[in-house]
Amino acid sequence: MKTPKRLLVLLVDGFDPSYVQPARMPRLAALLRAGASTLDGRGVLPTLTNTNHISLLTGAYPERHGLSANFHFDAAARREVFMDDVSFVREPLLFERLRAAGWTTALVTAKEKLTRLLRRGLDRCVHAKDCPPAYRAVAGEPPDVFTLEMNHWVLRIAREVAVHEWPRFLYVATTDYPQHRHGPDEPVMHDYLAESDAAFGRLLDAYDLDETLVVLTADHGMNVKARSVSPVRVLAEAGIAARGLPLIRDGLYAHHRDLGGAVYLYLDDPAAAGRAREVLAAMPGIDEVTTREEAAKDRLPGQRVGDLVCWGARDVALGVWSDGPVTRAETGLRSHGSKHEQRIPILLAGCGIRPGSEVREGRIVDLAPTICRLVGLDAGPAQGRALEEALA
Question: Full-prediction pTM beyond 0.85?
Answer without folding.
Answer: yes
